[in-house]
Write the structure tokens for this entry.
Amino acid sequence: MTDKESYGFNTLAVRAGHRRTAEGEQGEPIFPTSSFVFASAAEAAARFSGETPGNIYSRFTNPTVRNFEERLAALEGGERCVATASGMAAILSTCMGVLKAGDHIVSSRSVFGTTVVLFNSYMKKFGVDTTFVALSDISAWEAAIRPSTRLLFLETPSNPLSELVDISALAQLARRHNCLLVVDNCFLTPALQQPLALGADIVIHSATKYLDGQGRCIGGAVIGSEALVGKDVYGFLRTAGPTMSPFNAWVFLKGLETLSLRMRAHSDSALHIARWLEQQPGVRRVNYSGLASHPQHALATRQQKHFGGVLSFEIAGGREQAWKFVDATRMVSITANLGDAKTTLTHPATTTHGRLTPEEKQAAGIGEGLLRIAVGLEEVEDIQRDLRRGLQAAGMR
Ligand SMILES: *Cc1c(COP(=O)(O)O)cnc(C)c1O
């Protein structure tokens, strides 16, 4: 589908970006080729000079990768998408494409752990400093902005505490201070939240999570304007080479076809489980933006179509009880990944946030009794039964 008619989300998810070949295929083809062939020396020269468009080499462009890029760009409502080898490659390519030595980043403190390492250990080596602020505190963002600030970076809702920020408010702040707002939209995907429509400049994805949806491949993407993403980010990507393979692009492309169905099912089950957990004795707090008890529930309802599949909860006691809970489950997978059809369970304090000092954990709200679930697509009663075994083992029931 390549026409300009305006189609709805699910139609784009199923059809956008496929240019049917002369074979008349119904399913999107995979092009596992490193280079492309020219009809003549003159055509090769015209392609290389940029005089005529077209494929040259798969580090630059590949038809299957482009199919994925066009489909995801359509879903996020962006002019241009570039696919990358991983979510981290998407963040790195954005930084390398739009920043220079002396620039400054203001980032939410509650972003993916490896993103913090990228900013603190690697971007810093090249003269880019980062200030971390509390996600929801707009005045803290404003106070951290310097004349050299070029990028504001965040995830909303945050992991694992499900804190939110008002994307429109931060977009206005970014515009006032001439910075770019970059939103890692991994947790909700365009099916539930569209940051570009709320004023963000760039959206980042770890396609590894919900875009794949079945825990198969590593990949990422950057979406935004032709000038920023098509020129600056793509320019870095085609030169440095953290590109997506055509095989992975095909898996993600097929994943997009069921994205909104899956996100709705993940969200429905997560809401059910969050409400149930809230009723359980020994559960001190449930962090999920779909709960009426969530301090930013009104913002979540306004900014998101639903609340996503990830929630966390704090049980009474500490590490011992939390580990007993984890070890008593039989079905859910003990793994830190998320966005899979299979439910996953993790103890953040000793895994994803294990490298933080006790003080840093406390500041970040990562208690020893905190557990995170990424609710999958199994029968919700079966997930609940497994969690009940955990509560029993931890002495909560
Ligand atoms: C997993 C993740 C990343 C990193 O993605 P990879 O594909 O593992 O490189 C970035 N941001 C968020 C929010 C993630 O969950």
Remarks:
- The chain is about 40% helix and 15% strand.
- The first strand starts at residue 80 and ends at 84.
- The chain has a mean pLDDT of 96.
- The domain at 260-393 is CATH 3.90.1150.10 (Aspartate Aminotransferase, domain 1).
